[in-house]
Amino acid sequence: MVFIFWDELSDFSFENTAVLGLTLAILGVLAASVGNLVSVQTQKYDLPVIQMNTYGMAYGALFSLIVGLVQGKEMTYNWSLSYNVSLVYLALFGSVFAFGCYLTLLRRIGVHKASYAVVLFPAVALIISTLFEGFQWTWPVAVGIVFIAIGNTFVINRRDLKKP
């Protein structure tokens, strides 16, 4: 990850918004890790994925509403077709189906292996940015992608040392 974000990290300064962004990214990783652990614990009770997904999203929506209200933000809605189509797409495919698949993956292969799929997200984002936004690759980014691939290969294919 350091290689992929080398350009941004090399220009790092405590006097700009990079500190806030880095702090939020670290908090996001911690929250996702806690979410994975909670999911694994609840799956021990053999709860259905759809219901777990529903509760998680309902709590997240409620939390977001409370934060918005506490901050005094005005609640508005954009009625345009493009906004509504993108909202439905993200709600269904980017949230409901994606989290349902991830929770199922957690159940099938375990949190230790499923978590490494998340490491691939920046690589996928870079490929999409290359195709649609004209992202220019650098050597550190390419080296970072190679390290991600090698690391995931080792983790997914490692042998359990406790087994004979």
TrEMBL record:
Keywords: Membrane, Transmembrane, Transmembrane helix. Signal peptide: none annotated. The keyword Membrane applies. Residues 20-155 form the EamA domain. Its main location: membrane. It is found in: Membrane. The chain crosses the membrane at residues 20-40, 52-71, 83-105, 114-132, 138-156. It is a multi-pass membrane protein. The keyword Cell membrane does not apply. Belongs to the EamA transporter family. InterPro entries: AA-Vitamin_Transporters, EamA_dom, EmrE-like. This is EamA domain-containing protein. PANTHER family: EAMA DOMAIN-CONTAINING PROTEIN, INNER MEMBRANE TRANSPORTER.
